[in-house]
């Protein structure tokens, strides 16, 4: 049997049809090029805007959508866009591939209906493995732990917060400063600041920008 016949016989009966959304075309091209090297993947669409992806998914049958988390040029992104995809295409596997840290977005994406969350620094072979897993086990959620793709249920970080910390974060999410929050709660500025720092430590948020991103998703979801 010649090599061409062996290659044809080794091809899976059903190729995984993939559409990819990333506002950085180079990222999309890199992932798509890698996946094209496997017989079981068919990346037939790479787009840079959310509406273009919705149009593409509606025009033909896809198994998987690989989507970025942050889409600054689009009207909707993050968990809101994942929820929109899940509602519009219930059987679609949604793999979020993002520059966002897993600790910041993993649980939010799981709640929104994604099938996997991967950081953009994830090695390409693991991305391929995660895509296959979401198709094979669509009811599970996959992420990377210790260099392996594993099924898991992310634990919400806010479950570790005290009631006082949650109360303060709600005010901060509404745009109040530490001083304004202290006045409204009739507590000292030092007490509020201490609770805020404690909450940030538990949430593994390094700075105010990271906290703002977390609160944006937490309180708009």
What is the strand and helix layout of this fold?
Elements (H helix, E strand, L loop, with lengths): L2 H8 L5 E6 L3 H12 L4 E7 L2 H10 L4 E4 L10 H11 L4 E6 L3 H11 L3 E4 L4 H13 L5 E4 L2 E4 L11 H11 L4 H8 L3 H15 L4 H13 L1
Parallel strand pairs: 1-2, 1-3, 3-4, 4-5
Antiparallel strand pairs: 6-7
Helix pairs in contact: 4-5, 7-9, 7-10, 8-9
Keywords: DNA-binding, Phosphoprotein
InterPro entries: CheY-like_superfamily (IPR011006), NreC/VraR/RcsB-like_REC (IPR058245), Sig_transdc_resp-reg_C-effctor (IPR016032), Sig_transdc_resp-reg_receiver (IPR001789), Tscrpt_reg_LuxR_C (IPR000792), WalR-like (IPR039420), WH-like_DNA-bd_sf (IPR036388)
Pfam family, one: GerE
Shape: elongated
Order of strands, main sheet, comes to: 2-1-3-4-5
CATH class of the largest domain: Alpha Beta
Span between N and C termini? Answer: 57 Å
Question: Percent of residues in helical segments?
Answer: 40-55%
């Amino acid at each position: 049997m010649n090599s061409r016949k062996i290659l044809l016989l080794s091809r899976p009966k059903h190729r995984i049809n993939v559409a990819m959304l990333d506002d950085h075309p180079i990222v999309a091209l890199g992932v798509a090029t890698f996946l094209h090297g496997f017989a079981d993947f068919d990346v037939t669409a790479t787009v840079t805007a959310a509406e273009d992806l919705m149009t593409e998914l509606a025009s033909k049958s896809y198994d998987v959508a690989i989507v970025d988390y942050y889409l600054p040029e689009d009207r909707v992104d993050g968990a809101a866009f994942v929820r929109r995809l899940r509602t519009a295409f219930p059987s679609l596997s949604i793999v979020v591939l993002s520059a966002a840290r897993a600790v910041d977005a993993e649980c939010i994406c799981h709640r929104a209906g994604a099938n996997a969350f991967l950081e953009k620094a994830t090695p390409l072979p693991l991305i391929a493995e995660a895509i296959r897993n979401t198709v094979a086990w669509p009811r599970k959620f996959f992420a990377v732990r210790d260099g392996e793709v594993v099924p898991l249920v992310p634990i919400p970080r806010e479950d570790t917060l005290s009631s006082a910390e949650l109360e303060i974060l709600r005010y901060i999410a509404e745009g109040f400063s530490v001083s304004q929050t202290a006045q409204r709660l009739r507590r000292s500025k030092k007490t509020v600041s201490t609770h805020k720092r404690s909450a940030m430590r538990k949430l593994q948020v390094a700075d105010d920008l990271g906290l703002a991103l977390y609160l944006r998703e937490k309180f708009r979801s």
